[in-house]
């Protein structure tokens, strides 16, 4: 039987929209010039993109 302490530690990041912790290997990572954003899935990515476009259109 494998004990939890015998398993390797998985690096986790927080989704930039919902703040859910996800393994870095499972994160959707769109890169930009000044930052890297992590998302737990396409729904959070779409929400982030919608909010980003909305803020760009404000005067």
TL;DR of this structure?
The chain has 59 residues and is an alpha+beta fold. The chain is built from one helix and two strands. The N and C termini lie far apart (61 Å).
Note down, in words, how this protein is organized.
The structure is a single chain. By secondary structure, the chain is an alpha+beta fold. 7% of the residues are buried. The protein has one domain: Ribosomal Protein L24e, Chain: T. The N and C termini lie far apart (61 Å). It has one helix at residues 42-56; strands at residues 12-14, 21-23. A two-stranded antiparallel ribbon has the order 1-2. The model has no long low-confidence stretch (mean pLDDT 79). Helix content is 25%, strand content 10%.
Describe the SSE topology:
Blueprint: E1 12-14, E2 21-23, H1 42-56
Antiparallel strand pairs: 1-2
Identify the notable features of this structure and list them briefly:
single chain, about 60 residues, alpha+beta, Ribosomal Protein L24e, Chain: T, two-stranded antiparallel ribbon, 1 helix, about 25% helix, elongated
The Cα radius of gyration reads: 15 Å
**Low-confidence segments:** none
Q: Which architecture name does CATH use?
A: Roll
Query: In sequence order, what are the helices and strands, one letter per element?
Result: EEH
Q: What portion of residues belong to β-strands?
A: 5-15%
- Which descriptor suits the 3D outline? elongated
**Tally of distinct domains:** 1
Distance between the termini: 61 Å
CATH topology: Ribosomal Protein L24e, Chain: T
Helix content range: 25-40%
Helical stretch count? 1
Number of strands: 2
Overall mean pLDDT score? 79
């Amino acid at each position: 039987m494998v004990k939890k302490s015998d398993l390797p530690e998985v690096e986790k990041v927080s989704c930039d929209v919902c703040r859910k912790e996800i393994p870095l290997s499972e994160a959707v990572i769109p890169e930009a010039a000044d930052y890297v954003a992590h998302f737990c899935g396409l729904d959070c990515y779409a929400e982030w993109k919608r909010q980003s476009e909305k803020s760009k259109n404000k005067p």
